[in-house]
Amino acid sequence: MLTALGQAQVLYETGFEPDEGYDMKFTLAGQGGWLAEGTGGSGLVKETFTDMGNQAYVGFFPPEKDDESYLNLWRPITVPKTGAKRLKFSVAMMIADTEKEQRDEFRWSIYNSETKRLASIDFDNHNQEINFELDDGEGFKETEFSFERNAIYDLSIVMNFEKNNWSAFIGGETIVEKQPLTTTGAKLDLGDVSAVWVIREVGKPGDNYMVFDGYKIEQLEGEEAETPFGKNLALRMENGVPSITLGPEKCALEASSNLRDWETVATHPETGVFTEKDFPKHKGRFYRLRKIE
């Protein structure tokens, strides 16, 4: 997985590990400040993402009542009183497929401090489409992107509350670009980013679920650049190893096998294209691009 990072101040992050106080014997709701609306499944699993310790999940276990149609799982965020104009949410995620015929939908939804839903990005496990929804009441819109089941994706959402827009990215690819955070005049601030399980056919939930890790919300510093940072960023596989294009700015390419420990493997402009020849030695590999002065 590959993503670009600007300068940022972390407001909240978790890897759902025991040293953070998380216990696999319990649901995620009720731990670490996480809350839930609905009684469907949530909890912790170990090593679903290889070498990454614990992950959280939403889904799998049916709700207690047959008429429940969703589970909303969130952790309230405290934003500095000075106000944050630009925030970034990022997470590693996977849609784990069902053994039943029924497949459901999984979403990440942006809520403001007044619990008003502003926007959502939806992973529809029925047709494997990625769609998004605003607060305009017009339903979901196509991104023209799809996803693979049981594959790990690096999702990020950048929210600009000053300019009333948001964009979403998977790896280095833009999947939603500068859509309005609100079309109804709702308060422009962040309350939380929720993990949501939507049961496609009420009363018949699938045992599919969304696994996630490295949940992070950051305050981005400085003004938004006219030219997106890392616009040259690209990854392609050549003979079984990744070849990553860097630039055009001064930047550092960092690599990790667990999303916790990062090492710098190349810098630009010294390196224009980086090939990691030792890639086959790693069980899993993640990359990120960091701006340097």
Structural class: mainly beta
Unreliable runs, pLDDT <50, ≥5 residues?
none
Number of strands: 22
Query: How large is the radius of gyration?
Result: 19 Å
Characterize the largest beta sheet: strand count, sense, and whether it forms a barrel. 8 strands, antiparallel
CATH topology of the largest domain: Jelly Rolls
SSE order, one letter for each helix or strand: EEEEEEEEEEEEEEEEEEEEEE
C-alpha termini separation: 24 Å
| Tally of discrete structural domains | 2
Given the structure, what is the number of helices? 0
| Named CATH architecture of the largest domain | Sandwich
Helix percentage range: under 10%
Strand content: over 45%
Shape: globular
Average pLDDT taken over every residue? 89
Can you describe what's shown?
There is one protein chain. With 293 residues, this protein is mainly β. The chain folds into 2 domains: 219 residues, Jelly Rolls; 58 residues. 0% of the residues lie in helices and 47% in strands. It contains no helices and 22 strands. The strands form 4 sheets. Strands 2, 4, 5, 7, 12, 13, 14 and 16 form an 8-stranded antiparallel sheet that branches. A 7-stranded antiparallel sheet has the order 3-6-15-8-9-10-11, with no helix packed on it. It is globular and about 60 Å long. The two termini are 24 Å apart. The model has no long low-confidence stretch (mean pLDDT 89).
Brief sketch in words of this structure:
The protein is mostly beta strands. It folds into two domains: 2-220, Sandwich (Jelly Rolls), CATH 2.60.120; 234-291.
How is this fold's topology laid out?
Blueprint: E1 2-5, E2 8-14, E3 35-37, E4 42-46, E5 54-59, E6 70-74, E7 86-96, E8 105-111, E9 117-124, E10 129-133, E11 140-146, E12 153-160, E13 165-170, E14 173-179, E15 192-198, E16 209-220, E17 234-238, E18 241-245, E19 251-256, E20 263-268, E21 273-275, E22 286-291
